[in-house]
């Protein structure tokens, strides 16, 4: 009377294919977000590394050429050391004389803050402090 139909069909149902596709899409979306974030982080680190390099170069320049900072420099005086172009990004390096302490005055040291600024955005990428031996009068 009743005949049982045999289900010989092999393969996946439409629901299984949609579920697998959805899961893959979710996983790839998460991985893509991580990739984008790590790329931005690497770019930021590269900029900071370049800025630290330029600051180190500025310290070297200041120490080798004492004439860069005036002998009678006061707190807040600013000296433009140089402008650089690295990887098509313009940077400006400035030295600012900081407040003198009694110890620095006694040792004839001039406290200087070096700032590396990205010229386009005026964003300070690196700051460092250094003491320079004051030039003899």
Automatic annotation (TrEMBL):
Record keywords, A-Z: Competence, Membrane, Transmembrane, Transmembrane helix
Residues that span the membrane, as ranges: 12-36
InterPro entries reported in the protein's UniProt record: N_methyl_site
Biological process annotations from GO: establishment of competence for transformation
Organism: Bacillus smithii 7_3_47FAA
Gene Ontology cellular component annotations, sorted alphabetically: cell surface
Pfam families (alphabetical): N_methyl (PF07963)
Organismal lineage: Bacteria, Bacillati, Bacillota, Bacilli, Bacillales
Subcellular location: Cell surface
Name of the protein in question: Prepilin-type N-terminal cleavage/methylation domain-containing protein
